[in-house]
Amino acid sequence: MLFAGSAFSQGKTVSGTVKDDSGAPIPFATVTETGTKNATLADASGKFVITQKGNGTLTFSATGFKPAMLTPYENPVSVTLVKDAYELSAVVVTALGISRSKNSLPYAAQQVSGDDLSMTRSGNAASELSGKVSGVEIRQGNGIGGSTNIVIRGTKSLTRSNQAMFVVDGVPVDNSNTNSANQTTGRGGYDYGNAAADINPDDIATMTVLKGAAATALYGSKAANGVIMITTKKARKGLGVTVNSAIITGSIDKSTYSRYQNQYGAGYSNPAGGTYGAPLPNWGFWYFDVNGDGTKDLVVPTTEDASYGQKFDPSLMVYHWDAFDKSSPYFKTARPWVAAAHTPVDFYENSLSTVNSINFDGANDKASFKLGYTRNDEKGILPNSRVLKDIVNFGATYNLTDRLTAAASINFSKIQGKGRYGTGYDKQNPNQNFRQWYETNMDVYEQRDAFFRTGQNITWNWADPSKADGSGLKPIYSDNPYWTRYKNFETDQRSRYFGYASLNYKATDWLNLLGRVSLDSYDELQEERIAVGSVAPSAYTRFNRSFRGYNYDLMANFDKNLTSDIDLKGVLGTNINRTEISSVFSSTNGGLVVPDLYSIANSLNPISAPTENYQPTEVDGYYAGATLGYRDMLFLDGTIRRDISSTLPKGANGYNYFSASGSWVFSKNLASLTWLSYGKLRANYAEVGSDAPWGSVKDIYANVDPFGSAILFSLPAQKNNNNLKPERTFSKELGVEMVFFKGRLGLDATYYITNTRDQLIPVNVSTSTGYATKIMNAGDLQNKGIELSVNVTPVKTKDFSWDLRLNWSQNKNKVVALFGESQNLPLASFQGGVSVNAPKGQPYGQIWGKTWVIDSATGQKVVGANGRYLITTSTTNNIGNVNPDWIGGIYNTVKYKNIALSFLIDIRKGGSVFSLDSYYGMNSGLYAETVGLNDLGNPSRDPVLVDADGKTMPNSGGIIVPGVTADGKPNTKRVPNIGGTYGYGYNPAAGFVYDASYVKLRELSLTYSLPAQLLEKVKGIKGIDLSLIGRNLWIIHKNTPYSDPEENLSSGNYQGYQSGAYPTTRSIGLNLKLKF
Amino acid sequence: MKKLLIVSFSLILIGSSCTKDITSLNEQTKRAGSVPAETLFSNALKVLTDQTASCNVNNNVFRFTVQHWAATTYQDEPQYDFSTRAIPDGIWSRMYRNVLNNLKEAKGIIEADALLTAGEKANKLAICDIVQVYTYYYLVTSFGNIPYTEALDYDNLFPKYEDAKTVYYDLLTRIAADVAALNPAESGITAKQDLLYSGKVASWAKFANSLQLRMAMTISDFDAAKAKAVFEAANAGAFSSAADNAVFKYLATTPNTNPLWVDLVQSGRQDMVAGKALLDTLKSMNDPRLSLFFRPNNAGNYVGGVVGMNNTFGAVSKPSDQMALPNFPALLLGYSEVEFLRAEAIERGFAIDGTANGHYDNAVKASILFWGGTADMASTYLASPDVAYATAPGDYKQKIGFQKWIALYNEDFQGWIELRRLDFPKLNPPVGAKSGFPNRLTYSQAEQRLNPDSYKEAAGAIGGDKVETKLFWDKF
Predict the structure, then answer these.
(1) How far is CA A423 from the centre of its chain?
(2) What is the tens place of the pLDDT at every residue in A856-886?
(3) Is the pLDDT of residue B2 over 70?
(4) CB within 8 Å: B449 and A826
């Protein structure tokens, strides 16, 4: 314990501040007149006033700190407490920004420090949460600036958002994802990211995850999916300046991308299925005169976007696509028939990011301020892709009087994207070509050179080069991939302000009043382009959207010792939450007039009316909560809230929340157990409600473009409902926290059951009802799970320490009920005849599709008379489930003197993913699996040869698919290895479902902090840290061929499906942090 | 200060809790809460026509089924794989949701409209019902048993399927009643909103009667007496010339072009080429429609593509240039078809005017004229022994079936019905066929997921949810 001061005349009243060794105040420290029952609590800013009865010493204690005694010599006193050997993250910010000692918390709340969230400087604090908190499942696709899926304790809503709520310093920050339904179901579009990415990672002090309903009940319906509470950094005394700079480069992890067979080129078939015109044996080529010499030439069939064609033969000279490109050195020139030297792997570039931030802060007795600026400039692995983020944050407090404090903060961010990656089954996604429909003879660098040579859409995929007039020299299915990237790029921007202004009045020593107005406001613009000359009709679309969120809070906090043993804390308040979403979507019609002019006015045909939306909502809430504490050992919590929502029918739009919780610090009763440093049991129960999506009550009609002068309207896809009632969630939770051996081992375990009933969801209905969906109260989804966090310090010496943090969680969900006689709720249907479903009695997220017919006796796949697998006609077979069995993270920190090594291993066990890339790519013969030798030792793609007696000849190609015939005998029928043999042509969707488990070395950082002795010589610099940082360096284990099991289309409920999947970016960089 | 703050805090707390009706925020301010009934009717009619006109492989693939067209590269649908692209789901959803339910809604609004005269109301309701009958005919002949009386009810989320025959006979009753209800002296759908007949009620009556002829003939093998009765009652009021054709006139600008143009031209793709079976027939019989249906390959020759096999675009013929115009009209029912029906009716002994030969000639001629040929071309063609009714090979079913197969070019859904009913011409199965000849479509996959009990019951009732299962009227 340290304190400064000189002699101090003995007095009755002592005031002061309790701080930690960094100078930050310790809230709610207990100040006791030593040896008496006279005690008080410090407030949230560490300030205390105690009236001494005698002249003795004071004892200061706070959870996580070593208690200290001192005899005050001055008034006010400044007391510094030293952290205890074990730390229970002494103070946790809970719902509504109420700070509580972790000791008294009756529910699970896991906290992560800001430094841990910006370790690899990815610029996205949400994705850096992966593996660091139990019970939180993060999924991050590989697109640049893509959205992060953050689901806490499993999927609760069958069809609506399950994303956690973000709150920054008490301000709810909207985390919408505006990706279209087409985008999230793999039908094309861009992943524009989600709005939580606008939070400055370098300004985060801590992130607290409130997982259960009891923890979030005071927040009302918006917190139904759990809350991520972000507390930004506090200003410190004096002036501080921190500069943090990183440069990071990345390249693709080739294990997550296609590797191509290099034996056969363009084509779909072999002679059995038709030739392309050239006489045998050159069946795989077109046959027409290219060079004008009057004789017909062998031409690569440029329209055939598969690789089931003729076998490569370097001695065979053929005309490739570039023979029809006037600018090419191979114009009208034959080249050898060989596999491309540069495959699509070479299409990917190295990514490059720079992250620079500077933060100023300062404080004195009256006021504090901070000002920060961060710029994150990321160039992606695809050509012409860039996301630029600028974030400025400013916050200040001023003590108007001793009791009245004004505070305000404002954050401004601007995100600008250009060339985000096209997703799904769409021409703007080069992977639709590269991973599904591709000719292995196509050299990506040749395409690059052709584009940069001409600026034109010179594609390998000519529609019809045989046409004498050249009118067939246009792309048929695929644009030149460089054209796609440089001409058909999107741009987007989002400008955002969020912040608050508050007045805090300390009415008495036990009553605190807070009034706060907060704002979250952003405007975004998404522009998409298709250039004149592309396969798709040229087009320009723009989507303007604005979000406004206003929160008005009035809150009274009180904290009173009823007796010296019993403490009562309470809160009473009201919150008005108002949001407005307004958007306009407009598109050109039928094409563009002037090339490269992207304006709605440049539409070829008169435009369709823009689609407007205006969706205001309001929720008015009133709440109260109380915590009764007994000797810092027993705590009882109760909260109640009532919300009135604008989105439910009048008269049925009010609903209540309750929570009751208790905790018992049992270690206080077991003081004799010296190995047990701390132990707490906690239990809680909560019921919370939720309202409907905006506009669910009254029926409307959908606009349709007029037909000439005729006006058209249509019923909408959704039937609304004026009999809606609030949705209810019931949650039970039991937990234990224990610390052993003075903090060398800590454990936090939680078990929970949550049921979300009467869900307010649009349910898919049989379209023979006349609608696609109907909004109703339907369904009961149960989530049961276990969360485990363990902290271990196996080694700790003066110079060396090793800390290990383990997080593990398992969530099992079950669809308990749907509606009426419904046995299943389809969530989404995807290309490939695959759907994701919520069947009654089973886990949410079942992947359904066609599967093999299985012989019940042998368990083998049944092969039909044609030698191919028999496939079910029904599409309701369960072929996978998107939910992992468990997820976990192992976070290691090893420190030796000034060097710290941290790394995170992120693990997901189980869960399935369907790959449309395999479904098509195997079909079109891109991968090694589709070539090779058969059981006779001959190339399997050779034709099947039988002699006159019908016996297989020894030089026959073809394969015998493993399985049994209808009578259970092993299949012996030889079939040709033609297009479709390994793909969807002859295999069910079940053949392309993979286990999505992974073990990843997610994060790594090696930091060297310049020793203090060295720094003393440099005036003004308080610290220099130099780090080597890496992200996604190594996928230690996975089961998905040619892809990253984590890759997805977007955040949201539709997981377990990949189409045109992007590879993982392995990134490595340097970071320099300077503190002045 | 302190008191002031506490007082104002309390006041705000109380003030904010004063009751106010925030549910007004939930009102729709950007979408119509009520619309004129005719706008729903016009939209339903357009969606229905788009479905029948389209050649998109996700919507309407029957041009492959009747082998009028072949595909260049992607052979799933030509090889009878309708599930990869969930063709039945699309048809099911468009017909019930976008066509039938909008018509039902239109009817409801018309019924409730107090300003209409009884005659106007009856006309508008009957016209809506005629389009509903046309749509249900499409569904019941595609699938078999379908949701019918329990359909289009948002309070019944698990509609039962009804016996196809029962549905079919009810449709016959309905359309007869519609014809009876139409009164040409009163106005119907306004000219502006009537995209088929520009408000002419009499034309709708002719259309409904012609539809009755088609529907009667479809069941003529199954229930000759019923077919005869319906046919004879409706014949006089049916189409008497090509001027009566149910032609949907697409516009030249997106998004109201013929969907054919979207897939043939705008998409830049070249999936669709002439089918060898039809093209070789046209060529060998010197059919004047050859150049009206198709354009030659790059070398200037007419070559058809084999259905189910890869076909090199430049080497084979393509749909004709006129079909690739954005405003190429779509035919929902034509005079040529009606005349074929009459020819067959006479052969079947139905008591109507004329001779089989005469109606047959009219039918062929009407088809040639519709596609842009001349009367002379038709006479020459009809004079050739392979075509002339007297000398053409086969019995009446074969003669009519064969010529109807040609004449229903670009009306391939109906062509598929006639191919199933008349079983002529005999077409070779496509290369690599994934099933037997489709006698129906399997049910929508979504029904298996959403309405499983009704689905299973229906699948059992019709003899299995397979494409090969024959429907009740398809006796031979």
Answers:
(1) 16
(2) 999 999 999 999 999 998 889 999 999 999 9
(3) no
(4) yes
Q: How many residues does chain A have?
A: 1076
**B3: confidence class by pLDDT, cuts 50, 70, 90:** low
A311: β partners: A264
Q: When comparing pLDDT for A1076 and A930, which is higher?
A: A930
* Cβ pair B366, B345 in contact under 8 A: no
Chains A and B: how many Cβ contacts under 8 Å?
Answer: 278
Torsion of CA A54, A57, A62, A67, to 10 degrees: -150
Measure A589 CA to nearest chain B CA, in Å: 7
Cα Rg for chain B, rounded, in angstroms? 26
Say whether A351 sits in a helix, a strand or coil: strand
What is the rounded distance in angstroms from the CA atom of residue A270 to the CA atom of residue A268?
7
Summarised one tens digit per residue, pLDDT across range B258-294 is: 999 999 999 888 999 999 999 999 999 999 999 999 9
Looking from the CA of A1042 toward its CB, the CA atoms found within 13 Å total 27
Residues A967-1004 have pLDDT tens digits of 999 999 999 999 899 999 999 999 999 999 999 999 99
Contacts of A614 in chain B (CB under 8 A): 29-30
The predicted model gives A258-272 an average pLDDT of 87
Cis status, amide bond into A1063, omega within 30 of 0: no
User: pLDDT confidence of A9, banded at 50, 70, 90?
Assistant: very low
- B35 neighbourhood in chain A, CB within 8 Å: 701, 713
Judged by CB atoms closer than 8 Å, whether chains meet at B448 and A875 is answered as yes
Supply the mean pLDDT for chain A: 91
Contact A529, A540 (CB under 8 A): yes
Phi, psi of A512 (to 5 degrees): -130, 135
- Considering only CA atoms, which of A504, A430, A503, A421 is closest in space to residue A460? A430
Residues of A in contact with B432 (CB under 8 A): 273
| B430, closest residue in chain A (CA to CA) | A273
- Give Cβ neighbours of residue A1017 (< 8 Å, ≥ 6 apart): none
**Rounded CA gap, A377 and A386, in Å?**
7
B82, B83, B93, B97: best mutation site toward chain A, by most A Cβ within 10 Å? B97
Tell me whether residues B9 and A556 touch, CB distance under 8 A: yes
Q: What percent of chain A has pLDDT over 90?
A: 69
Q: At what angle do helices B356-370 and B396-407 cross, to 10 degrees?
A: 10
- The tens digit of pLDDT for each residue in A572-590 reads 999 999 999 999 999 999 9
Pairing, β A165-168 against β A227-232: parallel
Q: Do B154 and A711 touch (CB under 8 A)?
A: no
**How much is the ipTM here?**
0.95
User: Which residue, among A769, A919, A923, A986, would best test binding to B if mutated, counting the most B CBs under 10 Å from its CB?
Assistant: A769
Q: Which of A772, A874, A882, A786 is nearest to A838 (CA)?
A: A882
Where in A380-473 does DSSP place strands (E)? 386-399, 404-418
Tokens standing for B464? 């299995």
pLDDT grade, residue A32 (50/70/90)?
confident
- Contact by Cβ (8 Å): B442, B83: yes
The distance of A771 to chain B (nearest Cα, Å) reads: 6
Q: Which chain B residues are closer than 8 Å to A833 by Cβ?
A: 83-84, 86, 445
User: Which residue in B93, B192, B449 is closest to A824 by CB distance?
Assistant: B449
Residues from chain B that touch A513, judged by Cβ atoms under 8 A, are: 5-6, 9
pTM of this structure: 0.89
Distance CA B287, CA B276 (A): 15
What is the chain B residue with the closest CA to A875?
Answer: B445
Q: What's the pLDDT tens digit per position in A993-1041?
A: 999 999 999 999 999 998 877 877 777 788 899 999 999 999 999 999 9
Q: With beta carbons less than 8 A apart as the criterion, state whether A792 and A745 touch.
A: yes
